[in-house]
Design a protein that fits this description.
The structure holds two protein chains of two kinds. Chain A is 42% helix and 26% strand. By secondary structure, chain A is of the alpha+beta class. In chain A, strand 6 (175-182) and strand 7 form a beta hairpin. Classes of the chains: A alpha+beta, B mainly alpha.
């Protein structure tokens, strides 16, 4: 072994920190001040707050969407109910859907609902042009042959806005309004009592 | 490499880190501060300190950042003639004084090689420098110490600086290094 190496080894082995200072260093290591953003004690609550905030925002967005849809449904139902209550006389008086379709030539969609039970229960009295939410529509006057109850059926083409409305049944302005769709057509039936929900 | 730190207790690790820091700074207070900061940094990052090599690296990084960058310690080579004019006294103090005259790189290389048992290859890997440069550095440092010791033992002998004393000139030991 190199004598100088041994001297160096002896020299450095003699160099020692007092035990008190060693303890101090060891303790200082355990008392490290962790930045608050790296401390689990703070990060976990923050993460929880963040997640809840996200959930809250999602819920609010969902609520807003639901609320908008609900508003639209109410608006359409109210429009339909008002038109029903006006009881405007049909421009085309006929019991034939074929005749009515021919007379209301501006509409390029079928006016006849395919709900056979409804069609069987109600007799067509006539129809006229109208609009729903600014879209061209046909307003048909129907009568329940068994009870004599008058209904107003609105038919229009599906629009992006009306697509948001689900099939439903609601009371507006004292009338019952029922929505449904058949293919690319949107139907709304207004009357004093909920008509039977029958589909093909 | 004598860095089987898994066998070292925390106390021994701190002492080893301190000695290494001392080889860098050759100043007890600075060394203590260095090892404390390194320990805290590692504790902060990993939650524990149980590896001597990692501790040494942290100490070295801190030293580099703090001292070399801020030029707190001047690493200019010490001229042999200047040192030869200064008296030294006491064997233990002699080595301490002689080591103080060395550049920090020389002290560090000597410490790692002679005390910690690092080979030149390991030091070169640690420092990112060629192994030959490490061998040359260790050789020059030892030669300086021997020459200075000889001058101290025989103060009337004329200090005859050799090319090895000029640290700017590379030196390649003919027989290599016992540890390298």
């Amino acid at each position: 072994m190199d004598r100088l190496d041994q001297q160096l080894r002896d020299y450095y082995q003699e160099q020692k920190l007092p035990s008190a200072k060693v303890e101090s260093i060891l303790e200082s290591g355990t008392l490290v001040v962790v930045p608050w953003w790296r401390s689990p004690r703070h990060v976990l609550p923050l993460a929880a707050v963040f997640v809840f905030a996200l959930l809250g925002l999602g819920f609010m967005a969902s609520s807003l969407t639901t609320s908008e849809t609900s508003q639209l449904a109410y608006s359409v139902a109210k429009e339909v109910a008002k038109a029903h209550n006006k009881a405007l006389a049909p421009e085309v008086v006929t019991q034939s859907y074929t005749t009515l379709q021919a007379q209301l030539h501006r509409v390029d969609f079928s006016l006849q609902p395919k709900a056979d039970a409804l069609a069987a229960a109600c007799t067509l009295l006539g129809g006229r042009y109208c609009s729903i939410q600014g879209e061209l529509a046909a307003q048909l006057r129907l009568q329940d042959a068994r009870t004599g109850t008058l209904y107003t059926l609105f038919v229009t083409k599906e629009t992006p806005q009306l697509e948001k409305l689900k099939a439903s049944n609601r009371w507006v302005e004292g009338d019952n309004v029922r929505f449904w769709r058949e293919g690319d057509r949107f139907f709304a039936l207004a009357g004093p009592a909920p008509p039977p929900i029958r589909t093909k | 490499m004598n860095n089987t730190a898994d066998e070292l207790t925390p106390d021994a690790l701190v002492q080893a880190g301190y000695r290494y820091a001392l080889s860098l700074t050759h100043h007890p207070h600075d060394a203590e501060d260095l090892v404390q900061q390194a320990w805290m940094r590692l504790q902060h990052r990993y939650g524990r300190v149980d590896n001597k090599a990692v501790l040494f690296k942290a100490v070295r990084n801190l030293f580099t950042d703090r001292y070399r960058r801020n030029a707190i310690v001047v690493f200019e080579p010490i001229e042999d003639r200047e040192f030869a004019d200064k008296p030294v006294s006491g064997a233990s103090q002699d080595l301490d004084t002689l080591l103080a005259r060395l550049r920090s790189e020389e002290r560090e290389a000597l410490f790692l090689n002679a005390v910690e048992g690092y080979t030149a290859a390991e030091i070169s890997e640690l420092w990112g420098q060629p192994r030959g440069s490490i061998l040359s550095l260790i050789h020059r440092a030892k030669k300086k110490l021997r020459d200075w010791t000889a001058q101290h033992d025989n103060p009337r002998s004329s200090p005859s600086p050799t090319p090895d004393d000029d640290s700017t000139q590379p030196h390649h030991p003919p027989g290599g290094h016992p540890h390298g």
